[in-house]
Amino acid sequence: MKKEYLTFVQRLEDLVERKEIELTIRDLTPGQRKYDAKVVKAVLSGSPEGLPDGDILWVRSWIGILYPDPWGIKILGEVGEYLSGKPHGETLGVD
Description:
Elements: E1 4-9, E2 21-27, E3 37-45, E4 55-61, E5 71-80, H1 88-91
């Protein structure tokens, strides 16, 4: 059975298909560790069928709006505890 994950993006165009990217994801597996977040290196597809050996990635906007169609994700490995760069509030110009 495929696992399901969630990520938040500023714009859907920020997700790149068929290239290795770093992404913060939340594990949606039921249980005590549900919603644990981790930073991973992964390859994405615009649909789960595009990565038959991958898992399911649900995508939400920064404000929490769920995009209707899931993506496919194949996790290549964990990166660490955080991504370098500015927090999304600073990126969006929020003070």
